[in-house]
Amino acid sequence: MTTRCVDTHVHLLLSKRQSSPDWQAIGQVLEMASISGLDALCITEHIEADGYASLMQGLFVENQMGGYLHGENTLCVQGVCLFPAAELELANKTNVGVHTDLQGLLALERSAGAYTLAALHDRLKRRGKPFKLVAHHVLWPGKTCDDLEMLGRYIHAIEVPAKDMANAPRYVALAEALKLATTGGSDAHTFIQVGAGYTVFEQLSDASPCTAEQWLSTRQSRHEHEPNTPRLVAMSNIYRQSLMNR
User: Which InterPro entries match (predicted)?
Assistant: First the structure.
């Protein structure tokens, strides 16, 4: 049995308006992930972001970071594996992390609000490929979901987000009420916040590297956070804002 630590909510674009990836900045994110002892990162970039397609293709097709592909959906760079994913805003404003193969992600509608949760789940299921849906910061103002029965029916896990640690017990209680696993995601937009929250799961094999297929197949996971998570989130927000104001 091997324990894997994966930050399952990471952005590599500074904002939705960024059209071209900054590969040097992405290298800093990977370096911090390696220093933090993470096995992998799920690249849950906003699917409606201007640079979403160029980021994902640059990583997993063009191999701009100079890593090596392990199968179709795992890129290993600097000792850290990257998995393709996306963050979607549903029709009811709730955000979900979509974890599946790259082709499935690139085939999705990219406009915010294009899917209800049921429609998104149905589309992914009809493809016949493994997938996982994670509710992101679902108690955050403006992104809440009042239909808990729907969450329980279609969602695989509830994220306990790094940016909302004050409400962590509520997220845990929601997951328990719906009999769902929890995940920990940093929601990082800069290298500072990477690993502030992360997901832990066990795999039967000790095979390396950690792969997207292993992450997609597990239904048991738990959240973890760094002791100084609020400070990391605050520092990252200040740094990000300074970059956007340049």
Answer: Pol/histidinol_Pase-like
**pLDDT 10s per residue in the chain (246 long)?**
789 999 999 999 999 999 999 999 999 999 999 999 999 999 999 999 999 999 999 999 999 999 999 888 999 998 999 999 999 999 999 999 999 999 999 999 999 999 999 999 999 999 999 999 999 999 999 888 888 888 999 999 999 999 999 999 999 999 999 999 999 999 999 999 999 999 999 976 666 889 999 999 998 999 999 999 999 999 999 999 999 987
Q: Which CATH superfamily is domain 2-245 in?
A: Metal-dependent hydrolases (3.20.20.140)
- Here the tokens at position 51 are 């640079």
| pTM reported for the whole predicted model | 0.95
Q: Taking the CA of residue 52 as centre, how many other CA atoms within 13 Å lie in the half-sphere pointing to its CB? A: 22
- Cα–Cα distance for residue pair 222/184, rounded to 1 Å: 7
Amino acid found at 11: H
- Answer yes or no: are the C-beta atoms of 18 and 243 closer than 8 Å: no
Structure token pair of residue 54: 């160029």
